[in-house]
Amino acid sequence: MKPEDELIEKHRLLVCLGAGGVGKTTVSASLAVKAALLGHVTDVMTVDPAPRLLDALGLDADAHQPRRVNLPAARARKGHAHPGRLRALKLDPKHTFDAIVARHAPSEAAREAILRNSIYRNLSGALAGVGDYMAMERLLELSADSRTHTIVLDTPPAAEAIDFLDAPRRLLELLNSRAIVLLSAPGGIFRSQLKLVDIAARAVLAAFDRVTGLHLLGDVQQFVQSFEGMYSGFAERAERARNLIRAADTAVVVVTTAEAGPIAQAIEFVTALNNAGLTLSLVIVNRVMAAVPDEAELDSVKLPAGLKRKLRRNLADYRALKYREQSSLTALRDAIPDNARIVVAPDLGREPQTIADLAEIGASLSLVG
Known about the structure:
By secondary structure, the chain is α/β, with parallel strands linked by helices. Helix content is about 55%, strand content about 15%.
């Protein structure tokens, strides 16, 4: 069995990490198409796909609910009761946050207070890290459907992709922080329980409000207090998400290209995964160049001598690029754990625009010896 097929058969969740510009979203979609064509009931959640990829998956720019993707007709494979099915959705962090508030707010009044709060409106749409955690919340929703065999997660792009996997821990730290205690305490009621530095911080914010007229302290306090009764739910789901990422049937896949810069970033990701106690399953090197043609073939082709000289120069340049690519792959092989595998996806020579293109990428994946 091919490594990528084995990966799909043995794991329910595939988490794809990678730097920007390496085709991580395309590879994620290709793995999802491959899983569906192998007979799996599959969901893929992508973050910021290119317009052509949106079209290929049949998604609108605001497609925050799973949409059925049309696949070539296929019979059920042995071991699967039904032919594969693929659904795709695009992560919308604000919509996900709003849905969580609507679902878990202790009352309608609390729900309306949160959704109208100016701090919440800015937090849900702009604060760094919210997108990471909302992807985790959405992932929990998808994984709760027992009918789904395979989930492919295209993680949010970030300078440090590991930040995404660390989102549940960061949320747990926030919920346990002194800031929550400080801001949730109504003025005067718990004053005797606050440390001097806490009282001073509240006094500074209150003074800032008086000078600016922005009512910042009041808005922040109202925001934090309106979540009263919901913190335990966020903490419980954050812990579930953390466990899900570390489950035995979860595979972490790093996507890169063979250029020196992306390879160096991929090696950094591998180190960060190891430091976080996460196991790397597979590295997919995207857009790998084709094999170098045999120069002897030029001798048997009837072409003008000048054209043959140009072709030989081009071939020499191509051979140098291919050598550089192979050197990068060797450096990558030396840097990853022995039990992790490297698979390459050849360059299509065009932007993938259709399901057929994604299926072609998935079918052409091959193991690096």
